[in-house]
Design goal:
GO terms for molecular function: ATP binding; ATP hydrolysis activity. The strands form two sheets. An eight-stranded mixed β-sheet has the order 6-7-8-3-9-10-12-11, sandwiched between helices. Strands 2-1-4-5 form a four-stranded antiparallel β-sheet. The chain folds into two domains: about 5-235, 3-Layer(aba) Sandwich (Rossmann fold); about 255-270 and about 290-395, no CATH class. It is of the alpha/beta class. The protein has helices spanning about 55-65, 90-95, 105-110, 115-130, 135-145, 155, 165-180, 195-215, 225-230, 250-255, 260-265, 330-335, 340-345, 345-350, 360-365, 390, and strands spanning about 15-25, 30-40, 45-50, 70-80, 80-85, 100-105, 185-190, 215-220, 235-240, 240-245, 315-320, 320-325. The structure holds adenosine-5'-triphosphate, iron/sulfur cluster (SF4) and magnesium ion. Magnesium ion binds near residues 56, 57, 188 and 189.
Length: about 400
């Protein structure tokens, strides 16, 4: 079967539905990806953000059909309406490179050290165009190297990967990814192995790749700062699952899931008018083996209440295609995008009516928090942070519930 002939040009470029990936291991079944849904439209850049182990790479490897044979994959991955899950390697190789191409985190895993870089680009071109003459392939390889900013490209096509710096190797990998004018480029942490100045250059090269090819892109990173300037929409993953999806402005300025707010708080921001300390998220992500019921972020969440442990929250619409998986989105809204209002050590008792999880309480140590359920008015509250007044005003003072939680 020829996959590319069975595609529907009017269907979304890439549509992922209820994708689940499980790996049998000695410790039990690792449920690495738990119900990922997203749609990528023409020309769009979708940023996928999350901590290490949140399932970003496994999601993308599942899309490309590159998971190890032991992986149990269910759900649906459609490229232009054509189902990719369950396709054999031969059928998938028609999609890879031309339909969807991938840039991996470490360029040395993508480049073969024993072949010249020009030859490696030419090979990629010939896989999808067997009639291409070697002269034309050589010329195109040099063009591509020039496009990604390699000086003296006509000469450098004869270099081996070890003759290039890390940043230059990543440029070569991007040239290979754009060689066949793919519809979609999936870039998995393309800048993580590089120093900060080279990171900025590589992001520019990615933008060049998009404008030259007209491709849409899935940009995977653990750094919300990286997607800020380039993504149209952002999907935040936690413990194998999307926990917030929205336009880039919504995610940065009106996050509704405490985890997203926490990620923003651990990021230095040049766009803030006030001096703010960074507020890291305490603790670490849960194991994805035999997960307990309830919200997976609960052990690290200052907004946690008993109800959070009952069932894992679904993504709910918060407006304009923006969705978040949290039962306390209203409280997050009141933070006005200020992470300190939720994650600052001084914030937890005064604002949020949270029933603090044991490990967060332990981390707070001798913090001056009163007993859960103390009315806010009886505390000596710290001075409010700029921009968080709405959290403290009378209309938002939490009410005490029968179980002692303030909501
Ligand atoms: N082949 C495998 N067998 C068992 N578990 C696996 C396998 N591959 C990945 N995992 C597990 O799946 C989970 C998700 O891994 P993944 O590589 O997708 O994380 P990630 O979000 O890309 O992290 P990073 O930012 O470190 O790249 C992790 O818990 C990982 O240990
Ligand atoms: S408030 Fe509850 S549901 Fe929302 S992120 Fe925190 S623990 Fe999860
Ligand atoms: Mg990864």
């Amino acid at each position: 079967m020829t996959i590319t002939k069975n595609t529907d040009p009017s269907a979304p470029l890439l549509s992922v539905e209820d994708l689940n990936v499980r790996f049998p291991t000695e410790d039990g079944l690792v449920h690495a990806v738990r119900g990922v849904d997203y749609t990528l439209r023409s020309g769009e850049v979708l940023g996928i953000v999350g901590e290490s182990g949140s399932g970003k790479s496994v999601t993308s490897l599942a899309v490309m059909g590159l998971l190890p044979a032991s992986a149990r994959v269910s759900g649906s991955v459609k490229y232009r309406g054509q189902e990719l899950l369950g396709q054999g390697d031969r059928a998938m190789s028609r999609v890879r490179g031309k339909g969807v191409s991938m840039i991996f985190q470490d360029p040395m895993t993508s480049l073969d050290p024993v072949y010249r870089v020009g030859y490696q680009i030419e090979e990629t071109l010939r896989v999808h165009d067997s009639k291409l003459s070697s002269k034309a392939a050589q010329a195109r390889a040099a063009d591509l190297l020039g496009m990604v900013g390699i000086p003296n490209a006509a000469e450098r096509v004869r270099s081996y990967p070890h003759e290039f710096s890390g940043g230059m190797r990543q440029r070569v990998v991007i040239a290979i990814a754009m060689a066949n004018q793919p519809d979609v480029i999936i870039a998995d942490e393309p800048t993580t192995a590089l120093d900060v100045t080279v990171q900025a250059q590589i992001l520019e090269v990615l933008q060049t790749a998009l404008s030259e090819t007209g491709a849409a892109m899935v940009l995977i990173t653990h750094d919300l700062g990286v997607v800020a300037g380039i993504a149209d929409r952002v999907l935040v993953m936690y413990a194998g699952r999307p926990v917030e999806i929205g336009g880039v402005e919504d995610i940065y300025y009106q996050p509704r899931m405490p985890y997203t707010l926490g990620l923003l708080g651990s990021l230095p921001r040049l766009d803030s008018s006030t001096k703010q300390r960074l507020t890291p998220i305490k603790g670490s992500p849960p194991s994805v083996v035999n997960m307990p019921p309830g919200c997976p972020f609960a052990p690290r969440c200052p907004l946690h209440v008993a109800e959070c442990d009952v069932a894992e929250p679904d993504l709910v619409e918060v407006g304009g295609g923006h969705t978040a998986a949290c039962i306390r989105i209203d409280e997050v809204r009141k933070a006005g995008g200020e992470a300190a209002a939720v994650f600052d050590e001084a914030a937890d008792d005064r604002l949020l009516g949270s029933e603090q999880p044991a490990d967060l309480a332990a981390a707070a140590g001798t913090a001056d928090a009163g007993a859960p359920g103390d009315p806010v008015g009886e505390r000596t509250d710290p001075t409010p942070q700029a921009g968080t007044g709405s959290l403290l005003d009378a209309t938002t003072t939490p009410s005490t519930t029968t179980d002692g939680d303030r909501r």
